[in-house]
Amino acid sequence: MKVKIIRNHFNILDNNSDNLFMVPTKKKDEVVVFGPDYPVYFLNEVKYQAIEIIPNEKPLLPTNDISILAEYRDYQEKAVWSATKSPRGYFELPTGSGKTIIMAGIIKLFGIPPTLILAPSVDLCKQLRDRFENLLNEWVGLYSHNFKSIKPITVSTYSSFIKSPDKFSDFKMLLIDEAHHLTGIQLLSRVLLHPAIHKYGFSSTIETDWLTAKYVRITLSGYFDRLVIGDRLFRMTLEDADEFFPKINLRLIPLIYDYNPLPDWIDTNSNLYYTLMVSKNRKRNEAIANEIAEIINEVNPVLILTAQLRQAKQIAETLKKHLGFNIPIINSATKKAERETIINSINDFKCVIATSIWDEGIDIPDIRCIVIASSQSSPIKAIQRIGRGLRKTKEKDEILVVDFIDQCDLVLYRRDMKRVETYARFLPLVTPITERVSPSLFPIIQLCFPKKSTSKITLQLASLLR
After folding, report:
1. How far apart are CA 293 and CA 301, in angstroms?
2. Sheet with 21-24, side-by-side order of all strands
3. C-alpha triplet 342, 347, 353: angle, nearest 5°
4. Domains plus CATH for the chain?
5. Cis amide leading into 301 (omega within 30)
6. Which residues share a beta bridge with 156?
7. Residue-wise pLDDT tens for the chain (466 aa)?
8. Cα torsion for 175, 178, 179, 183, to the nearest 10°?
9. Which of 42, 65, 272, 311 sits CB 3.0–4.6 Å from 279 for a disulfide?
10. How many whole angstroms separate alpha carbon 215 and alpha carbon 226?
């Protein structure tokens, strides 16, 4: 089959099968084409020879044994058994809910078949490998840029899976951690074409973005026996098992600084606008750092999450003036040994700044405060960042989350309010405390957080006015 793509008009040039179903992607001239037997490859050329794969194996039969070297929480055991509903589907659980235990239980449920686990980063792959070896008492392979070990149970990075799909064709089960990344064209196309019958996705943020949910659940033109990942098999919210998670205090701080608007010719949606207004905006970053300095005296250790290294350095410089010591910065160039040292000694540092490398997949149980300094509107990133602090310990039963609402730049203000809407939608918040709130914030906050909401999560609104 060949498909010609001209400005979103799709013409079938050669076709031996009927009932094709085509879905546009986020890019103008790209489309996913599905056939009646199995999804066909992504097409991003004017003429492209598509590929069809028809699986000839039956689904694996579940056993009655889900025992692993760990005790299940009630919801974890229910999640494992829900995998018997369908060979395709996704699991939506908050960060800190023990998704690795659930994945190990599913592997054991189906008799430990050849299983490939996908994760976004090498560090997360290493964590998963060690955890699976302990839970299943099996040797687990690791395949990434520097590791080339393939075993009956193997953990691989997304990038290695995309580059070398033939090396993983014998696996019977595919488990995708952080499955919200399936909106990426290359990753989704490889998952579509992998011959495994059993494919399960795991994430805390599948439903936070309609586009992710659309592609994860997309069906093949009415052929419901073949799904990309499938419908949701299990969902748990913070309210469903609140005894396992710390109480969340969300503090929104109106941000006021010496504002200099940019020229009109700069596109407000461009990376240049974000870089100039956020990453390199020293006045704005100093205002953020001034607030953080007071928070550190109130609660610590604090994890500050930024999008770019430039912003992290400017915040660290101002914090050093307040605190009198250097603040460690974690980015993609930080060596693994240094990262592990910081994680293990987080209480000694009081404050750590990280770029987007720590947005997901990192476990830091001792963190007591998370500061969102990046001013990005993505709902997935917003929830994932809060998830860095949702590990409950004997010493920690609550977590403070601090976010900023820009009061000077309208574009940034709108982005910030999108995050507020995300918090209201996906975190069950109570009526906010509204004393000394900026007048521009009050009406929108009231809309986002209705008085009917009830939960263990509280919201605090702080102002620069002392």
Report:
1. 12
2. 21-24, 31-34, 39-43
3. 50
4. 2-49 (no CATH), 74-235 (3.40.50.300), 242-461 (3.40.50.300)
5. yes
6. 118, 143
7. 344 433 333 443 334 444 444 444 444 444 455 443 333 333 333 233 333 333 446 789 999 899 999 999 999 999 999 999 988 888 988 877 889 999 999 999 999 999 999 998 888 898 899 999 999 999 999 999 888 999 999 999 999 999 988 899 889 999 999 887 776 667 877 887 788 889 999 987 665 554 455 555 543 333 333 445 777 899 888 777 777 878 888 888 889 898 888 888 888 888 888 889 999 999 999 999 999 999 998 888 999 999 889 999 999 999 999 988 888 998 888 887 888 888 788 878 889 998 887 766 676 778 889 999 988 877 777 877 877 777 777 888 888 888 999 988 888 998 888 888 878 776 654 334 434 345 455 455 555 555 444 344 445 544 433 3
8. -140
9. 311
10. 14
- 234 is written with which tokens? 């299990």
Tokens linked to 320: 């050093």
Cα 82 from Cα 320, distance rounded (Å): 50
- The residue behind tokens 């794969």 is 53
User: Are 38 and 53 spatial neighbours (Cβ–Cβ below 8 Å)?
Assistant: yes
Residue that has been written with the tokens 């149970």 in this structure: 153
Amino acid, single-letter form, for residue 243: E
As a whole number of angstroms, the distance between CA 328 and CA 352 comes to 5
- Could you count the other beta carbons within 10 Å of the beta carbon of residue 255? 23
Please give the backbone phi and psi of residue 426, each rounded to the nearest 5 degrees, phi first: -110, -5
With beta carbons less than 8 A apart as the criterion, state whether 109 and 59 touch: no
